[in-house]
Prior knowledge:
alpha/beta
Amino acid sequence: MSTIISSLTNDQRNKLLSLFSHAQLHLLFKASVHGFAADQFHFRCDKQGPTVCVAFNSSGFVYGAYTSKDYAQSNQNILDERAFLFSIREDRPRPIRVGVTPGQHAFVDGATGPNFGALLFLDQNTATVLSPGGATFNFTAAEMHGDNLNLTEFEVYRVQEMGGVLEKPWRIIQWNEDKRQELKNRILSYRPDVKGVKEARVLMVGPVGAGKSSFFNSISSVFRGNMTSQAIAGKSGKSVTVQFRAYTIKAGKGGPSVPLTLCDTMGLEEAEDSGLHPDDVINICKGHVQDRYQFSPSAPLQEGTPGYRKNVTLKDKIHCVVYLMDASRVSLMNQRMLDKFCSIRKKVNQLGVPQILLMTKVDEACPLVEKDLSNIYQSVYIQKKVSEVSESLGVPLSCIVPVKNYCTELDLSTEVDVLLLSAVNLMLNYADSFFENLDHEEETDKETDTETYKSVHV
């Protein structure tokens, strides 16, 4: 999914958010990218629930309109008592807010740009605003937009009400150094109960920008004891990772290896011929893809081509698949991306490989969590997002774990480490489930052709 950057400064965003009780903004439409055209606005903003239009002009005004109702091109006058216009300037400590006149409709739900009567945005499919005044909203033109109706930018955001804090957390977690050390020790002492396999092999799959590479770097940092950046990570509309990489983790500089290999992949994209091919996920799970294989979005790896491993042992296969998803973009996934996820999940299920989902960037999605990470299991919003992704992808709630990667920090944090290590611990538990489900005679060591991988439990 391509990343579109908001034009709002931090000050402008904070002033805009002050008009709501507790909300988050998700950018849907940006005219400089999608075009100053009504049809493009409706294509991306219809039936999105509460939205706020944000107009920018060269006079330093940021102004616009909020409605709690859907745009649907119904050609009806829409009543909305919660609708309002607003205006923000750097030299004003607070934004101007103008409510809808009682008894008046808030906007005309037609095929034009957003039409709030006193303000018609994208007038005649141009970078201009028509401001005829009227009875719907009462304001002074000079205070609203400085009589400058030419747009330098126009954006529309979905307004997500965040809710509050749950009385009791929906998961209990200890946020202290003892828990952090306990989890580290448990992971370092992990040993698969299978002959010939010394570590769990976990595959990371997710859309572009979900944070797969950042997750590996974060886990590596936790065990290294300082910030590291072994995997290439960054913000881009296309996948930064273009090769299959199998990363090992060291416990301290020059220390022993953690019994876990994290496998990074190219990001999933909406288009059929872009991003990681779903069949390559299956090739990786079966152990056929060699380290540093260069992905081809147009065609999966085939037997006999460079990068294909023909002779596979159990230690080459994937023992757990981890999906990663940006918490703030759960509601924005279109049907094509959902179909890709469901197709991959179905095929991985057929292989008998356990799967979990990590919800990343929770601090960016929820201000309560950004303020205090220990609020994560008391955030109404995060709980709602977990339920939403569970329903969309068919992943059980017990298999979904919210996490925060290290991104801007220079020092490690106990709270962040506890979340990350809890996720790794769950991966190892699920890898054990994979080993335990193997038939005694199903997996034979290909190198010796004699030793059975599965050991007998006593």
